[in-house]
Amino acid sequence: MVFHSPVAIFAKAGEAGKYRAALPAWNMVLRGFLAGSFIAIGCALATMCSTGIVAGASAVKDTPSLAYGMSSLGIGQLVMGLVFPVGLLLVVLTGAELFAGDAMLSPLAAFTRKTGGIGVVNLWIWVFIGNFIGAVFWAYLMANGPFIGFDATGTAMVNMYGAHAIGIAAAKTGYAGGMGFWSAFLRGIGGIWLINLAVLFAFCADTLAGKILGVWAAAMAFIGLGLEYAVANMYFIAAGILTQGFLTDQTRVAAGVNWLSMWTSNLIPVALGNIVGGLVFFGALYWVAFRKEIAAH
């Protein structure tokens, strides 16, 4: 297995950031849509595979807001971590544009003067929009497909997978108050750190097996540790919002799971944490550590 040195990896990452920042806006959105859909596929797979392992998610009658959080010693979290990397692998291997990678790659390009600050921000904005559209699209597909069943009269009802999806969304919009904002922000820093490592690991190896192993290890750790990533949460929360519309008893709708709380209680603090994590704790620190070697590479 061919393994590149850290200097070579960061040099390649800077070139990749330069290439991405030079894309036209429509292409950023298009590739972002694909990446958002791919990450959503991994999230949907994680939801399906962990259903029933988490206590309270085994039946539709269970309260969705409690369906996530009473896990059997973290086994449910482990299962989610084992299958979620499928989505990130689809992104890495197909060249789609993901906000996580761009939060690191484009700053590295800026630090090495391969692009400017405006190009970095422009890339972040358009890719974020594309990721959101793709994630919500896949959430709609799941909410109107695998997350519902039908009774004898043809009425759509939330099944056990849908109940689990609503429970996940409830947990992710449960960051309340200033401390909740701070916690989501910190989890966003940690989450992007591991996602960025997964992206960098893809640069480490030239073989398909090497890329798969590297991406899977870091992405699995991200989910297993309960960290946060904005694009994944775009899907998780949107899937819960759309699925709870099929609940026959609307009084059982998870409190706080709506389009407003999606942003105020999760996406805003998590995305800020992702930006700080990618820009400062990853891009800047590694550039400072390897800048002389990168300049000479």
- The CATH H-level homologous superfamily: Glycerol uptake facilitator protein
- Main sheet: strand order: 1-2
Helical fraction equals over 70%
Structural class: mainly alpha
Number of individual domains: 1
How large, in whole angstroms, is the Cα Rg? 19 Å
| General shape | elongated
Biggest sheet, open or closed, and with what strands and sense?
2 strands, antiparallel
Mean pLDDT: 84
In words, what does this structure look like?
Helix content is 71%, strand content 2%. It has 297 residues and is mainly α. The chain has a single domain (6-296), classed as Up-down Bundle (Glycerol uptake facilitator protein). A two-stranded antiparallel ribbon has the order 1-2. The two termini are 22 Å apart. The relative contact order is 0.18. Mean pLDDT is 84; it is low at 55-71.
Task: Give a nutshell description of this structure.
This protein is mostly helical and 297 residues long. It is built from 11 helices and 2 strands, in the order H-H-H-H-H-H-E-E-H-H-H-H-H. A two-stranded antiparallel sheet has the order 1-2.
What tags apply to this protein structure?
2 strands, mainly alpha, elongated, 297 residues, Glycerol uptake facilitator protein, two-stranded antiparallel ribbon
What is the fold's blueprint, element by element?
Elements: H1 6-21, H2 25-50, H3 75-83, H4 85-94, H5 99-111, H6 117-143, E1 148-150, E2 156-158, H7 160-172, H8 177-204, H9 208-224, H10 230-244, H11 259-296
Antiparallel strand pairs: 1-2
